[in-house]
Fold these 2 entries.
Entry 1:
Amino acid sequence: MLNAPMKPADDRKKPFFVGLRMTKEERSILDKIQEKVGLTKTESLLKGLEILSEYYSLGLDQPPLSFELKKLEEEAIQHADALKRIRRREDALKEIIHELRIIDQIVNKYNDKNALIQILIDIQNKFNWISKTAVIWISERLEIPTSSIYQIATFYKFFTLTPRGRHLVRVCLGTACHVRGGPKVMETVERTLGVEQGDVTSDGKFSLERVNCLGCCALGPVIVVDNDYYGNFKTADVGKVLSKYS
Amino acid sequence: MSEEVTLAIDGKEVKAEKGTTILEVAKANKIDIPTLCYNEKMTPYGGCRICMVEITKGGRRKLVTSCAYPVEEGLEVATNNERIRKVRGMLLELLLPLADTGPIRELAEKYGVTKSRFEAKPTDCILCGLCVRYCAEVKKVNAVCFTGRGTSRDISPMPEIAPDICPICQECNSLCPAGKIVELTQDRHLLSIPISKKKTIASG
Amino acid sequence: MVEKLKSASELTNLRERIIANRDPSKSVVSICIGTGCTALGAKKVVEVLGEEIKSKNLEERVKVKQTGCLGFCEVGPRVIVYPEEISYFKVKPEDVPEIVSQTIMKKDVVKRLLYVDHGTGETATTLEDVPFYKHQQRILLEKNAKIDPKDIEDYITLGGYDALPKALFQMTPQQVVELVKKSNLRGRGGGGFPTGRKWETTRNAPGEPKYVIANCDEGDPGAFMDRSIVEGNPHSIIEGLIIGAYAIGAHEGFIYVREEYPLAVENVNIALGQAQEHGLLGENILGSGFNFTIRVHRGAGAFVSGESSALISAIEGTVGEPKPKYVHAAIKGLWGKPTCLNNVKTWAYVPLIILNGVDWFRSIGTKNSSGTAIFSLVGKVNNTGLVEVPMGITLRNLIYKIGGGIKDGKKFKAVQTGGPSGGFIPEQYLDTPVDFDELTKVGSMMGSGGMIVMDEDTCIVDVTRYYANFLSDESCGKCVPCREGLKQIVGILNRICAGSGREEDLKTLDDLSELLRDASLCALGSTAANPLTTSSLYFKDEYEEHIRNKRCPSKVCRDLIAYYIKPESCQACLICLRNCPVKAIAGEKSIVHVIDQEKCIKCGMCIEVCPFDAIEKLSPAVPPTASYGIKVTPKKRR
C-alpha cells in the first residue's frame, strides 16, 4: 500500500474526493512533495488518517500530553537551530526522535537514579553536548527534577550545555605544564583558531578547552586533540597539528 | 533514645539532648549566635560561616559551624571571642560589596565593619541558598537551583517551572537577605541562554 | 571459556599451569603504551614491531607485551627486551628493525638506544643501571614493566592474587585489620591518616551495608602516580579492595576514576571483568562464601570531587560538593552508611603487606611513616617522572641524585610539594627528610606526592597566582571564605603581577589566608592558603620587588618585562621579524631590528627563533629608547 507505484495519469486528472479545487500552483507543489515521498495523494491521505487515529487513541489531543507534545516540537526546532544544520520541521523531529531513543538506551543501561553522572557522561560522549531536550527527557525518565540535572551539568567541567565542535582541543594547564610554558601554548592555539578557551570556532570545527591535568606531567606542555595526545609540544607545531583534522 | 549531655557555652553550663546542634542549644538557652544561611525549616547548609564558634575538645581548639555541629558531653564552646569576631569581620567585609542590604548591613555594623577593602560586583546575592533550599525541601517544587561552580556559581530559575509558579508563590522573598528573589528570577538570564565558561588567568 | 576458581588450591594450580605454559626462553618485548608514551608515539612503534616480527617469521619466538607506565615518561617510548632486560629509550618506529635483528635475534645491544646519563655520560644496559631507577625501591611500580594490564594471567604469574587466599582462608577479618594497624600504613591520599584505624572504625561502626571506595581522582596537577597504577596494574588495587572489604565487612565497593584518564577507566573495567570471570569477584569468592562486587564511577571534571565527602556525594549522584565533616565517613558515609575511603595506592600496598609481613613493611621508611611513597618529580629537573622511594629520603637526594639536578644548569629556587594544598620549600630546607610529619613542619605537606621543582627563571608570585587561580576555578563555591576569599586573592595577585600592587596588599593577603585556614568548609579552602603563606614567608623579597619596584626578578610577569633587541648583537637576519605574530618588529637587511613596545604582546617567539641570542628580557619594563637605522655589527654565527 505504502510503496505502490504512482497511479496512471488519468486518475490524477479526476476531481478530488473531498471537493476542494487546487490551483495550478498548488498542484505543482503537491506533485513535488509526492515525487519526493513516493506516495500518491490518496496514499498520503490514508496514511494521515491512520496516524491521526493512533494520535487520538494515545490521548495526544488532550492536555497534558497535547501541551507537552507541542513543547517538544518547539524544542526540536530550537535544538536543530542550535546544531546549525537542520531547517525542515520533519527532519528536526526525526533528529529528536533518534536522539531520544538513544537517550532511552543509555538510561536503561544503568536504570538507576544515582547513576545520573554516569548517564550524563555517556550522553555528552555520544552527542557532544547536553541539550535542553536531553535534560527534560532524562528528568521525565528518571523522575527527578530538572534542577538536579542542571546543577550537575553546570558543576562539572566535562559537560557542555552548547554543542561542542567536531574536534575537541584540550590544552593542559596543570602546574608542571604551566611551569614548562603551557600558557604560551594556549595563547598560540587561541590565536590560531581565533577563539578563547571555552568557545567553539564559528565553523563548528574546533572546541578549545583548558584541562587541569592530564597526568602526562613529565612531558609538559601537553595538548590533546580528540584522543590524540601530543607531548613536549612546541608552539611552532600548532598549525601543523591542527591542520590534520578535518 | 535521647541521651542528655552537659556542655559549656561561654562558660555557662547547659544541658541538652545528644545530637542537637550547638546553635539549637544556644537558642534554647537564649544565647545569641548570628546566622545568615540558617533556617530552622531546612537542613543546615554551612555556607555562610557566620555562625562559627570555637570548640575545645580533648585539649584541641577548632572552629566549627554551630548550625551543623552536634553537641557532645564535656564540650566547651566559645561563641564570641576575639578569633571569632575577627573571622566574622572578615566574612562581612567580603560580603558587604556584594549586598549592602538589611541583615548583612546590620551584622556588619555590629561587628565594626563600616567599609570594605574589597571590590566586587553588587549582585545583591550572597548565595546563601535559602531560596533554593526552601523551594526544594519545603515547597518541593525545585523552581530555582544552584548552577555552576566556584566564582561562576549562580542561582538560576528553571525555565520550565519558574515563570509559571514564582510570581504567584513568592514565599522565598521573606527569607532572602537581599529581599529580591522574584525580581532576580525575572531579570536573570534563563538557562536557555548558554552559560559562558570563559576563564583566563588575567580575569579575576 | 574461563572456569570460575572455587578454592585457593585451584588458584595455585592455575598459576602453575600458566607458568608451565610460558616458555622461559621465549623473548618478551615489553613496550609501554601508557598515556605518556602514547603521547610520544608508542602505538606506532608497537605496530611496526608487530609487522617486523611477522615478516621475519619470529612469532613463535617473540611475544610483544603492551604494558603500563614505569614513570620515566620523558624518555619514552620505552622498550625492554626480556629475559636480558635490555632497556631502550626514546625508541622511534625506524629503530624497530635493528632492535629485532640485533637484540631479539642476536642478543646484541643497540648502543644508541641505551640510556645516557646527563651528568656522567655513562650508558645503562638494564633498567636497574639507569640512575633514575637505581635509587628507587619500586615495590608498587616494578610490576608495571612486566604486566599487560589487559591480561589477568600476567598479574597471577607474578604472584598476584596470592595474598587474597591467605587473607580469606588463613586469617579472620579482625586479624587482617590488626595486621594493617601494626604495619603503620598511612593513607597515601595526602592526609596520612593511619589506615588500620580507619578500617577498624568502619568495621565497628553500626549500620549495614558497609562500603569501600578507592579514590583515583588525582586532581593535583603535576601528579600522575595513581594514573600509572590504575592504567598499568589495576589488579593490585582490586586485590587490595577485596581484602579490605573482607576485613571491614563490606560487600560492595567503588573505584572512582576521573574521566580525564580514559585509558585507566578502560583498563580497570577490563580487569574487573576478568576478575569476575575467574571467580575472584562476585559471589562466593574462591569458594570462601564471601561476596563482593566493585563498580566503576567516572568523575566528570572537578578537582574538589577528590575530597572524600565530595567524592561520596558524587557517587550518590549529586554534585561533588563537600559536606560539613563533623561525622566521619567511616561512621556515616555513602548513603549514611559506614564507608572506608582510601587512595588507590593505599589499597595497592595491602596485598604486599599481607604477603611479606609487617616487619618487612616497617623496615622501609621512617619510624612514623612506613613503606615507600611515590612522588611525581616534575618541573625544572633533568629527569622528570615517577619516583618510588622509601620515606625518609631527603629532598636533596630526590632532586639531585634521582632527578639529576636542575635542567640546563640553572639555580634551584624552590620545590613545591603536595599540589595546590602544599607550600614552597626553599633551598635551606633541602635536607628535610620526606615523610608526612617532616614536610608539615616546614609549612608544606606530603599531599598526593606531587613535587614541582622550580629554578631561577620561575617567578614565585606568578606560581602562587597560578595556584590561587586554579583553586578558585575548582572551588565548589559553597562557602564564603573559599569562593569570595580566593576570588579576591586572585584579583590582588593579578594586580601585583601587572605592576599595580599596593603596600597594604601583603596585609590583606595575610588576613585572607587566615580566614581561609580558619573558616573554610573543606580542606580545599583551608589548605588554599599554604602556597600564599609559604611564599610570603620565604620569598617576601619577590613580592616586594613586584609591588615597590614594578620588577619581576625572574622576568616572567608579562606587564613587568620588556623585550629588547641588543643593537650590538643583532645580525639583521629578519628571522624574528618574520615570526612575530603581531608584526611588531621593524628592520631590514643590515639595519638593526627594533621592537615596537606598543605593539609587542610579549609572546616570546622572537627570543625562541633568534639564532644570535640578540634579544633579552628586561625588568622593570623600561627598555632603552630604540632608534631606528643603526647599522649592524657583523659577527660570526654560533
Entry 2:
Amino acid sequence: MSDQLSSTFAALADPTRRAILARLALGETSVTELAEPFQMSMPAVSKHLKVLERAGLIARGREAQWRPCRLEAAPLKTIAEWVEEYRRFWEESFDRLGDYLAQIQNSNPQYKEKTDASGNK
Amino acid sequence: MLQETSSPVAERELRASRLFKAPRPLVYKMWTEAEHIAKWWGPRGFTTTIQAMDVRPGGEWRFILHGPDGTDYPNHTVYEELAPPERLVLRHVSWPHHRMHIDFTEAEGGTRVKVHMVFESEADFQKVVLEYKADKGLRENLDRLEEHIASL
C-alpha cells in the first residue's frame, strides 16, 4: 500500500493532472475532449494520462479509436482514509492527554502550582 | 478541560493543535516519560506498550500500539531534538517516514501544543493535501465520489 500511496501522491502533485481528474469526476470522456480546455498538445496530455494510469487513478477503455478515460476512485479513497486516520489519532490522543492531565493535577496538587521558568501563570 | 482542536479546516492537513489547561513543564513531561505517555498516546480504545524509551537526541523510542480489534502496530521513532519545555522533534523511522515537530507554547489558560507532521515525500504530500483543500471543485467531486463508493 505504501508504494501505491506514494505513486498516487506523485501523480496528484501536478495541477494539470488534478484538473484532469476533476473533469473525469463528471464522467468518462475521450482524450481529445480532455485535451481541449488545457491548450496542450495531445502527446503532453497523453503523458499526464499515463502517469495517472500508472498510479491507478484512471482507467482507459480498450476500444481502438475512442479509448475513453474514466476515474478510478480507490486510490483517492485510500488517501482520504489515510489522512483521516492521522486526524483521528491526534484528536483522540489530545482528548486523552487532556483527561489525563486533569486527573494527575487533581491527584497531585503540586503539579498545578508548578510554572515555567518564565514565570507566567 | 479546554476543548479546541483541529477545526474542520484542518481536516486534510497533518497539523494538530490543542490548548491544555496545565503548566508547560508538566505538559512537556507527558511526552517524555514512559509512565505518562503510555496513558494517553493513541486514539481511544488503543493501548501502548513501550519497549524502549531513551529520551535524548539520537535515542530510540520503540512502542507497540494495540488496536481495539487486537491488531498490533509496531512503531520505531528516534528523538531528534529535545528542548524542554518548548520543543520536541521525533523522527518516525517505520513507515510512513515522517518527522513530528511538537511545539509547546505558553498561552492564556495553559499550554498550547502544536504538532506538525512532515512526511518524507513532503513536497508531494503537502502539495496534495493543501491544494486539495484549495481546489474546491475537485474536493466536492471527491466527496461525491466517496459517497458514491460508499453506496455501492
